[in-house]
Amino acid sequence: MRPTAAVRELFFLSHARRIVESRPAAQHAVVRHWWRAAHTRLGVAERLDPQTELAAALTLYREGVMALIGAAVVAVEGEVTNADLTDIDAAWRALERIWAKLDTGVDLASLDLARDALCKRTALDAPPPRMSERAAMGRAIERLVAHIERAIEPRSAAALVWRRILRVAPLVIVPLAVLAWVLPPLFEPKSLTLNKPVKVSSSRESEAPPGGREVVNGKIEHTYGMQTNEEENPWVLVDLERPTFVHRIVVYNRGDGWFTDCLPLTLEVGAEASALHVVETRETLFTQRRPWEIKLDDTIRFIRLSKKHGYITLAEIAAY
Questions:
Q1: Fewer C-beta neighbours within 10 Å, C or N terminus of the chain?
Q2: Are 14 and 150 contained in the same domain?
């Protein structure tokens, strides 16, 4: 199978679906019956310790592979007879009969180690195989089982649909998630306050960025972008540098606690710094996830936030 075809099969399971859809439902039900019988035994055999439970594991492997060969015979010939499954030797002869029709792309002779492990009888008092030999036998049987399963495709049509959905979904969801993360910032309106001049009544230099510049840097800091001293009438003033139509103003609180310390907070705007008018006073809690949003629809140049006493600490002041 070419790489592109292998990738398509991995995600879309086209070949597997063709196999199942071409098979009559009654026939597929019998294939699945034998496949379930096989895996009831193979699942237990795989959990046994080959170092101490090899005899029990081989018994279960023989029964499991016989049942799986039964499924393969039904898949190819439509039915399986008792003569095909009298013992593991008969089952292997049946497998040799249908192997070419299974179209595995693998020479059955390359699986001789699995045949020897399953069909060769050993005396009860014979010394056990070395650990490396046991491991090789287990890998050979697992390889045989994998080839037969891929050739007969025992899964139901509904199971293939769900498996296809689960495999294809990441191809859709991951790009959409990346786009949802990348695109909004690209199309998000630019704040009118971005990198505009800022003045503050005072600046707690040891704890906050000097001059309050980071309150208009377009980033919502986890802590804060400006902080005044505790004083009478603290304020922060943003200059848009020219009269600008502003639809709304968004104020983001600090992100590290003490969220109510800046309350009550008054917003003033105007075309002149000496002639500002009050738009709104905020007395209830606002945060970074739920910022204070003020609808304005006015042409202004200056935005000022102030309070009567205390200090002001904010992460970002934006206008759109």
A1: N
A2: yes
